[in-house]
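Margin note from the TA: students keep mixing up input and output lines. Inputs are the sequences; the output is the structure of the whole complex. Example:
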Amino acid sequence: MNQPLLEAINLSRTYKLAKGSAGKGKAFRHALVEMNLSINTGDRIGIVGESGSGKTTLVRLLLGLDTPTSGSVEFKGQTLISGKMPWLRKDVQIVFQDPRSSLDPRMKISEIIREPLVCLGIDEDHDARIDEVLDSVGLERAMRDRYPHELSGGQRQRVAIARALAPRPGVLIADEPVSALDVLVRDQILELIAQLTDKLGLTLILVSHDLSVIARLCNRVIVMKDGAVVESGNTREVFDRPAHEFTRALIGAIPRLPESL
Amino acid sequence: MSLLEVNNLTIAFGDKKVVDSISFTLEKGSRIGLIGESGSGKSMTSLAIMGLLPDTATVSGSITFEGQELIGLSDREHSHLRGNRMGMVFQEPLTALNPLMRIGKQIAGPLMIHKGASLKDALGSALELCTKVGLPDPDRVLRAYPHQLSGGQRQRIGLAIALACEPALLIADEPTTALDVTVQREVLNLINTLVDQEGSSLVFVTHDLPVVSIMTENIAVMQLGQIVENATVASLFQAPKHEYSQRLINAARVAEDAFSGTGGIK
């Protein structure tokens, strides 16, 4: 088999806790414990788990935004070193949960999308590229001169997606991309991510606490609990025949609509 | 006489109507869900009932509760009902609880204010309430501060405070939105059981259709400050009359179908 695109090798991250914050004796939090994960080009991986399960810690490490306590992350065989990442950022981009905080309120939409093109030294006509990504996320070009506060929540998340896609990354990481959005808008954004993943042949890493979001977009799922993987596999198989007790509890807890009771 | 009658309730900030002449009634012991997206006016409606609207809001119409008109009550008059005849559980228990006060005193508060209980008696009742809302080790919990408890435990405390004085009406505004799925389920089950046990009426506010459909028998669908449809859960799902209800149901179905493998984008 070929080398995986993105690989976590015995990845651990332990946080030191402030004194006294966790009662007696417990001064460390093991957010991620010896995690192994390999992601191949074209994979669509869903990461599911409850708060504190280590999902976001994993994402930060995969993005090179944090340094592992032990173990490593490799992208195309190269070990990530936090903070020295411009080469990685061309290939691996992120969409965060809440576009209200991930978009700079003082920048126009065009400047927001232009920023990665400039910072990463992308050699192409930036204005043309901005128009192109605005088109592909379904925003009018006239949005260029608007500010984030003038946009709706869904439009803002479209801008965040446009910014992520502007440098033509191969990997898109989305950390709870729709949980800050209203139900009907949520649908549209999921549809957009699905469509763009297909069209651009992206490798997708999607973090969500919502199993239906994972079911819609991902062919592989990883269920995390307390910093470790409790179960992983083909999304349909895991959801239809969950092997681990925790996965069963997650699935059982989802409120169902009346007819499906 | 219904427990709660809301008639042509309108709430505006300046020229902007956030609730636009809505009406609904709630009988003693029954439940209604207010569902809608952000900006639909569902939370403003529940705040109006509790008398917690900001001073800048102008309110017209009528809300009668146990035969008493609530609109026009002074804050002092309203406070006799709040936490006493009507209790409220908020979305985020971390901000709803006082971070500087031990849990015991926070549960004891309404009992001392409304029932004239002594601190000692009120703390005794608080201990029972902790057990009632399913908190293990209630002695420890009463001495704890909010930050020492988990999200689910904090929301159970929120429920204990709301139910301390055995209110006729419980308003739960997105009570499980901040919680993990498995904890959400536990808290929903708890609200179900306690509301049944106490014979309280319930106003359940949420954006989540599957959640509300397991909590109430009636659902009022709100959009842009108006109730566009008010129906039983069964008839809403079988034959939604309003286009917006239809869209909400479709969105919930798409999610559920994707999950159960009968639909999805792939």
